[in-house]
């Protein structure tokens, strides 16, 4: 039996999973990674701690699988996109890694849009500029921590940093870097003109060589083998941006389906033979299947809101679940189901970290009364997150000629039957998922299977190894209820639009 190891480094946790050649999830190990918030809007992590977490989850996953490291035939890594991980000329991390939810550089995309830079950038990258993209963060560092850039040897994305620690080889995988405004989507290569537009020409020689998802980008070093339990010399594939890995994991290998990922970020995407170049979508990037582009609408507005609610407003439930060994997410789902869909719950705007409507919009409950309990507020969060996915979906649908057959759902929502039904009702489309728990890591396993030659390409691996669940169909009566609630959601966003700059001015002054 051949085994593949997938690593998934998200915004809040690190996971390793072992899959066999049939696609069966054999073992999973994971651990939370500490998010550092040195200032409001800053989200970071210790890069050494992150590396140690990867080593630990690899060891545990292989041990739980009941196999030896020598039985792993290929490793592949995915990770959150955007953010920034800098490796120094002294062969050490330069500073903390910056996570994709960071918003310190929010003013740079605003400035670049006003002065016409974004329009020139879009002609080359087919992307709008986000505050959490490396170009924004590098510009912020240049202005605020110039010594950081002077000390930097390599500019890494999250998963490329992890692969570098596993192999000692510095490479940049295309799906990630083409989603960072660093690659010309017409040529497929780095573009000095792009960096010049951002005022970052000096960073050109700090970008690692570009590689494809299924390229072998190095081999497990003896040092990494000792720390992980893997065999030295095991090949490590290029891997993918986590949104690509999740898409192939749920069988999105053609243009029929839309993939939604409810994780830290609200990811809404489909693949096509051509990018959408009219500026109506947030991002186009290279997909991990040659010849396809990934068309994406996204914002950091999804299931991370549930994590915040749990940690901030459900402390006794957390303690109870730890004490009794119960699943707190199942309890949260049960709370939501106690409140009928028809009942008014406060409108929740899931903008805790950033938004998809205004650069300074923040999280809000609107319409609270003394009747409402935490159960109502929790349902509000579930609904608000799902409405935000719909907001993105509506923009995507305007760019498609091919009818959507179904939504392929990944992330935390896919593990909840209640939340999956909510997605089906609110999107008014069938929702399907894949029969594994860790879709990002599974996508890595598919990439690894193709990279080591077990399949000619990733699509072939997905066809053989993916098991898609029966579709959850929308209930049109509930859908009508959610339509009215969604209208309130949109009206709330519109009504508050003029408030956010004033709130930001107050924050900046204090």
Q: Helical amount among residues, as a percent range?
A: 40-55%
Second CATH tier, the architecture of the largest domain: 2-Layer Sandwich
Largest sheet: 6 strands, mixed
What is the total number of structural domains? 2
Query: What is the averaged pLDDT score?
Result: 96
CATH superfamily of the largest domain: ATPase, nucleotide binding domain
Structural class: alpha/beta
CATH topology of the largest domain: the name is Nucleotidyltransferase, domain 5
The best one-word shape is globular
Number of strands: 23
User: Strand order within the widest sheet?
Assistant: 18-19-17-16-22-23
Number of DSSP helical runs: 19
Radius of gyration: 22 Å
CATH class of the largest domain: Alpha Beta
CA-to-CA gap between the ends? Answer: 60 Å
Oligomer: single chain
User: What are the low-pLDDT stretches, counting only 5+ consecutive residues below 50?
Assistant: none
- The share of residues in extended strands comes to 15-25%
Brief summary of the model shown:
The protein contains 19 helices and 23 strands. It is α/β, with parallel strands linked by helices and 510 residues long. The protein has a 6-stranded mixed sheet with strand order 18-19-17-16-22-23, with helices on both faces.
Distinctive features:
Nucleotidyltransferase, domain 5; alpha/beta; 510 residues; 2 domains; 19 helices; five-stranded mixed β-sheet; six-stranded mixed β-sheet; globular
What does this structure look like?
This protein is of the alpha/beta class. The protein folds into 2 domains: 3-251 and 434-465, ATPase, nucleotide binding domain (Nucleotidyltransferase, domain 5), CATH 3.30.420.40; 304-433 and 475-509, Nucleotidyltransferase, domain 5. Helix content is 40%, strand content 19%. The chain is built from 19 helices and 23 strands. Strand 18 (283-286) and strand 19 (293-299) form a beta hairpin. It is globular, with a radius of gyration of 22 Å. The N and C termini lie far apart (60 Å). The mean pLDDT is 96.
């Amino acid at each position: 039996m051949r085994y593949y190891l997938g690593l998934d480094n998200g915004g809040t946790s690190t996971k390793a999973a072992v899959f066999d050649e049939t696609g069966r999830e054999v073992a999973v190990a994971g651990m939370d990674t500490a998010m550092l918030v040195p200032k409001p809007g800053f989200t970071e992590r210790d890069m050494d701690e992150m590396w140690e977490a990867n080593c630990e989850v690899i060891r545990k996953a292989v041990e739980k699988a009941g196999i030896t490291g020598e039985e792993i035939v290929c490793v592949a890594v995915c990770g959150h996109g955007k953010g920034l991980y800098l490796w120094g000329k002294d062969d050490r991390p330069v500073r903390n890694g910056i996570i994709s939810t960071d918003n310190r550089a929010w003013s740079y995309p605003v400035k670049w849009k006003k002065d016409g830079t974004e329009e020139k950038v879009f002609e080359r990258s087919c992307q709008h500029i986000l505050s959490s993209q490396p170009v924004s963060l590098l510009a912020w560092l240049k202005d605020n921590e110039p010594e950081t850039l002077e000390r930097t040897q390599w500019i890494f994305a999250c998963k490329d940093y992890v692969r570098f620690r596993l192999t000692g080889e510095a490479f940049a995988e295309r799906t990630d870097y083409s989603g960072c405004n660093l690659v010309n989507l017409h040529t497929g290569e780095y573009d000095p003109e792009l960096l010049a537009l951002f005022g970052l020409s000096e960073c050109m020689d700090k970008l690692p060589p570009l590689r494809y998802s299924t390229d072998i980008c190095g081999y497990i070093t003896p040092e990494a083998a000792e720390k992980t339990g893997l065999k030295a010399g095991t090949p490590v594939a290029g891997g993918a941006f986590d949104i690509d890995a999740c898409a192939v994991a749920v069988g999105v290998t053609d243009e029929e389906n839309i993939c939604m990922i409810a994780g830290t970020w609200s990811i809404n995407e489909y693949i096509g033979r051509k990018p959408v170049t009219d500026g109506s979508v947030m991002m186009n990037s290279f997909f991990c299947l040659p010849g396809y582009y990934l068309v994406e609408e996204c914002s950091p507005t999804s299931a991370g809101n549930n994590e915040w609610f749990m940690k901030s407003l459900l402390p006794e439930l957390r303690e109870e679940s730890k004490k009794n060994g119960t699943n707190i997410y199942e309890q949260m789902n049960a709370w939501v189901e106690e409140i009928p869909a028809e009942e008014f719950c406060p409108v929740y705007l899931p903008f805790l970290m950033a938004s998809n409507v205004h650069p300074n919009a923040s999280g809000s409950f609107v319409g609270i009364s003394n009747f409402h309990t935490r159960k109502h507020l929790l349902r509000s969060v579930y609904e608000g997150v799902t409405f935000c996915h719909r907001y993105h979906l509506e923009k995507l649908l305007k760019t498609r000629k091919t009818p959507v057959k179904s939504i392929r759902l990944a992330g935390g929502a896919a593990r909840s039957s209640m939340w999956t039904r909510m997605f089906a009702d609110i999107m008014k489309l069938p929702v399907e998922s894949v029969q594994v728990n860790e879709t990002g890591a599974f996508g890595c396993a598919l990439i690894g299977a193709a990279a080591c030659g077990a399949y000619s390409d990733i699509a072939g691996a997905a066809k053989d190894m993916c098991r898609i669940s029966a579709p959850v169909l929308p209930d049109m009566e509930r859908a009508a209820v959610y339509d009215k609630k969604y209208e309130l959601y949109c009206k709330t966003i519109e009504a508050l639009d003029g408030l956010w700059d004033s709130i930001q001015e107050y924050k900046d002054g204090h």
